[in-house]
Input
Amino acid sequence: MARDDDAGQGRSLADAPQVVLNGGLRCASCPLADCEGLKQPAPELLQWISAFRQGEARFLRGDLVFSQGTRPRHLYTILSGVLMRTRLLEDGRRQIINFMFPGDFIGLQAALDGEMTHTVEALTGAVLCMFNRERFFDLAAQQPQLSFDLTWMAAHEEAALEEHIVSLGQRNARERMTALAVFLVQRGMESGVASDGLLPLTVTQGQIADMLGLSLVHTNRTIQALRRMGLVDWTLTGIRVPDLEAARSFAKIDQSPNSLRPYI
Amino acid sequence: MARDDDAGQGRSLADAPQVVLNGGLRCASCPLADCEGLKQPAPELLQWISAFRQGEARFLRGDLVFSQGTRPRHLYTILSGVLMRTRLLEDGRRQIINFMFPGDFIGLQAALDGEMTHTVEALTGAVLCMFNRERFFDLAAQQPQLSFDLTWMAAHEEAALEEHIVSLGQRNARERMTALAVFLVQRGMESGVASDGLLPLTVTQGQIADMLGLSLVHTNRTIQALRRMGLVDWTLTGIRVPDLEAARSFAKIDQSPNSLRPYI
DNA sequence: CGTCTTTTTGAACGTTCTCAAGGGATGTGG
DNA sequence: CCACATCCCTTGAGAACGTTCAAAAAGACG
Output
């Protein structure tokens, strides 16, 4: 309802991202190792991962990591940066499905099915850890803990989408936007990207509109309303939620007890 | 927006469902073995499953299999029947997340996290195959194929929710309802529950409203509109979509190539 | 036959959308 | 340094879609 075009301001898939074959950071110095919100892999699993990883890929804001309908050759773990998953209807309407933070695994669905049902676009500069898609599951079969973690991640992504469905189905514009802001800030804090109720992240109002299923105009008015109410201050440069508890109660979010998130 | 109460017309969780310990059908005569839409487990996996299963549980329409906020002791595979997953907000608003058909696995998220984030309710009489939650993952670790199937199922459920998010975010009432009808009929045909564009299934308009995030009144008017248009004929006793292709094109659904669904 | 649930209808109201236009910031080329 | 283009945000006003309240009709069930 909001989008005219937009997607693809950055380099498209055709322009290869900057790839560093195994020369980049090794797992021993993985930036995710310091992240508090993450469950660190056991030494032997780490070793396996280390042997399997192919290198890193760097993307700029606006770059597409995957494109809906294509068959990707790689799987990725986000080392740094924030990305989003979007889905296009034939007539150009666009829906943002979810956002992805450091530690998240990208491409699981494609790895199983072959063809992407959505597009993944970088919202900030991003560094991803590359894996080969072909051999992934054969090798995963030898690592029960890894299979378990994969299942865990898929199940939790599902839970996040559930929450999102509740938002779209039952909440009005203000509640919806508040719920999204709280979700993002919280998720950012778990990933060490946000702190103190502030997540520095460039999201345009057009993108917010596509995430919430609202028109651009109404999105703008809702942002202003929440700002006046002191609940959420969302600007081009970041999201601030001064009182998370107040925001949660306003949007009727029930705080889910979050266990430690594994990563690969 | 629609619900007053409703949930729990049947027996609640307190009233135990009818449970048949291993006396019921054995895997050798599993009703799912004949289902065309399902990928049959390999013999050795089947044997493992057979040893692990605890029996069957039978539920009536309206019975709750799981209740939001509780810690279930069992996991289930649906042998027959149709169920739905719903989520309640504090203030009583309810959102139906998805429907579940024979072959679907129930309780994965709870198995990982302990606490249910949603309720599962039987829409028809249902027979479920019971597994013990505690030992499930220990044993699954010994069956790589099983781990893979679990990941597959979680990833695909995620894809279904994605589609649902697109509906809620981007489609208007008519498109939304058409998309849901097509999804259900198609899913029913894969499970052998529906045929010829007709799915016999008792869903009240109140439930449809909660699934689509619409008010009861508007749901009713939308049903009538779609009936007049000859696209979807949805009554208390079933859903009929005379021309699936026309309906798909109206709702802008891109036919996803569906691979065979595994089950446990 | 009476009760309960579900569907249907009317009418007023409110949220959200669309159309239309203007303004601020940033960047590029002349 | 200015002119122009682009992107994003902002505002106004009317229309459309969807909600709420209220009540009645139609089925389902014992």
Notes: Residues 1-15 of chain B have pLDDT under 50 and may be disordered. Chain B has eight helices and 14 strands. Helices of chain B lie at 43-52, 108-113, 136-140, 144-170, 173-190, 205-212, 216-229, 244-251.
